[in-house]
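Hey, resending since the last one bounced:
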Amino acid sequence: MPRHDPAGRWYHRPGKRRAAMTIPDLPPLISSDGHLEVRPERWSPRMPAKHREHAPRTIKLADGGDAIQIEGQPPYPAPFLDLRAGRTNETWEPLGVTVDDTAGVGPPEQRLREQDVDGLHAEVLFPNMQVGPRLWSLLKDGEVYRATVRAYNNWLGEEYCAASRDRLIGLGVIPWTNVDDAIAELEHCARLGLKGVALGVFPSGNGYPTPADDRFWAAAIDMKMPLTVHVGFDRLGPRAAQPTFEYPGVDPDMLKRIGPRKLVEWVALPFLGTAPSLSFAQLILSGVFDRLPDLKIFFAGLGAVLDGGGRLLVRAPPPLGRAPPELQAAQAETE
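The C-alpha cells again:
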C-alpha cells in the first residue's frame, strides 16, 4: 500500500503486479499530481440544508461549455487545460469544454480502471485549484464557505477515496480563512482517513507567513499529516495587495523607500522561472524550518504549464514546423 516517507514523497511497496496493467515493463508508479475534476453537484448535497441554495453550482454557457457559478461572482468557465485527459491534440478544443465527458471525472471505479490502463498503482489527487478552493474562497458568507470546504472533504473521505484508499489518495482542502479554521479542518481530515491536505494560502489566510502559522505547522507535525501546495501559495484577488513578508524590526519609512522589491523578492528573483519561488523564499526566510525542523511541505505541478503552453503553440497560427522542445533542442545544438 502507499506510504509517505520523511522527504514528503509517496511511494508504493513493491508487490505482485496487477494483471490489468497494460504497461508491464514500467516500475511501480504513483502519480504525485493527479487532479480530481468533478462538478460541485457531486458533493454539495452534503452541505447543511440551509446553505445548499448558496453552494457552488454548474451552469451552461452559450457555447455549450460548463461554468461554475459562485454566488455574487461572474461564471467561471471550466478550465480547459485541466480537462484535457483522454483527448488528443486533434480532438481537444479549448472552448465549449464540459466536465462530464472528460476522462477521470466519473465515479472512483472509473478512475481505478483508468489507472490500470495508465500503468499506475495510485494517484495523489489534488482538488481543482481553479474552480475549486480558489473559487470557493470568493464566497462572501463565512459559514457557507466553511460548509463548502467541509462538504467536499466529507465526500472525498467518506465516498470517493473509500472505494480504494490505497490507490485514490485524495487531499483534503484547508480553508483559506484563519489558523483556527485551518487546524479544525486538518483534524477533521485526519478523522476522515485522508492521507494528506492541500493548502492554497498560508494557514492564517494571508499571502505571507505570520507567527500564528506555527500552530498549524506544529499540529500537522504532531499528527504526521502530509502537507501539500499546488504550485505555490495564492497571491491573487485580496492577497495581491498584501506584503510578501513582515519585517517587524525595520523602520516602515525605510521599507517604503526601498520600493516594492524587498528581501523576499530579491531572494526569489533568480528563480522566478519556477512558479513557487516566492513561496519558497517566504517560508525559508520566515525561519519556520529552523523553529520546526520536522516540517516538510510537498510542492506539486511546477512544470505543468510548459506542456499545455507547448500544445497551444503547436496549434497557433502560423503553425510551427516542429514541436517547441524540438526547436529548443535544435537551437541548443547551434550555440
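Residues 142-160 form the longest helix (19 residues).

Sorry for the duplicate.
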